Amino acid sequence: MKYFMLGFLAAAILVSGGFFLYQHRGETGEGGVTGEARYHCPMHPTYTSDHPGDCSICGMKLVPIRDAAGDSGGEAAGEAGKGPAPAGYATVSIPDDRVQMMGITLAEARTLDLTPTIRTSGIVTYDETRIHRVHAKFDGYIEELFVDYTGAYVRKGQPLFSVYSPELYATQNEYLLALRAREQMPGLEPGAPGTPTMDLLAAARQRLRLWDIGAEQIDALERTRMPVRALTLVAPVSGTVIAKTAQQGARVVAGASLYEIVDLGRVWVQADIYERDLPRVRPGQSATLTLPFLPGEIWRGRVTFIDPTVDGATRTVRARLEFSNPGGRLKPEMHADVLVGGMRASGIGVPDSAVVSTGARDIVFVARGEGVFEPREVRLGVSWGPWVEIVEGLSEGERVAAGANFLLDSESRLKAALADAGGHGHGP
Q1: 152: closest CA among 212, 233, 231, 235?
Q2: Pick from 264, 325, 269: which is nearest to 121 by CA?
Q3: Number of structural domains in the chain
Q4: Any idea what the CATH number is for the domain that residue 321 is in?
Q5: Contact 375, 91 (CB under 8 A)
Q6: What would the pLDDT profile of 117-166 be if each residue is shown by its tens digit?
Q7: Nearest CA to 117 among 337, 268, 335?
């Protein structure tokens, strides 16, 4: 019985001592901090100690861990800033002598004039509104070809080819017969009493005009009173021949396209705009164009049209830009560099290197002083050059880390993960 009582008392003492140690584990440096300062390695937060020293992993000097009110990474950390730290992140503390060594630089959020420009590439194409096609409106045979190669420049009214058509030849004779009948019988003047209601001379003349026979050729027919075997068709506009199917001696049929002529005094440029940039592009905006092999030369134009559909392969939208082309120096199918001017505004901007994008959100690390960096979720606006607009989450004058953010991001995520897991530290 005596030994039983002694064993019972020993067990009770051990249980009480264990409970006491559990309640005051913070004072021994083995758990969370309650009053005593603890130390950890800035590069290995899992290595902690209850007294100063060096990290046995990397040899760095241990630094004090702030108490829960200033370093929990949760609600308390957000009280000094814009709210709670983003989920999965925690405030980190880095000694001042290590900030420079790690390559961390600071930048101030400030109000800037936002004149974002969109840089993209484009391809020069024809202005489709300036393409003209020369068609045969009757059957016949080409007797002589005056413009006989693609790429030739023609002026309005310049002869293209002469064509013999039995139907056209017969219509000329009809016109001459109607003309002679009117001259021999003056009473057949239009509108005279007893004359037919149809003016045969006017009808024959109109038929020739509908076949693209010019007024000068019809006047010559009246003067010579001889039908012409092969009538000449002329260019309807000035421009460059970009396609030709007409051949010397070839037979042509009604409706066949024999020439395509385009005026290159104005051209289109088809540029690809990414989806994210679409809100900043609208018809009427100014645009500039440069060519890689002509440095210093700039063409100025404007946006005239934006396609209503997105290319599923490239996730871009085709925008049409219009440029004047005096001298024809911009040639179709040329590749060009394009800048589309953005809408002028103002906003708070930071260097784009200060933003850590995770895909689901955007994070910046706000410098709170004394080596403390607080993660902050922000909402981005437009970007221009090396700057990006902060629409929400940051105030003017606040300083953010603009270099070595990947180190801060890793440190913050690791610290938050350890805090969630409730991990214990290590001894010295």
Answers
A1: 235
A2: 269
A3: 4
A4: 2.40.30.170
A5: yes
A6: 788 999 999 999 999 999 888 899 999 999 999 999 999 999 999 999 88
A7: 337
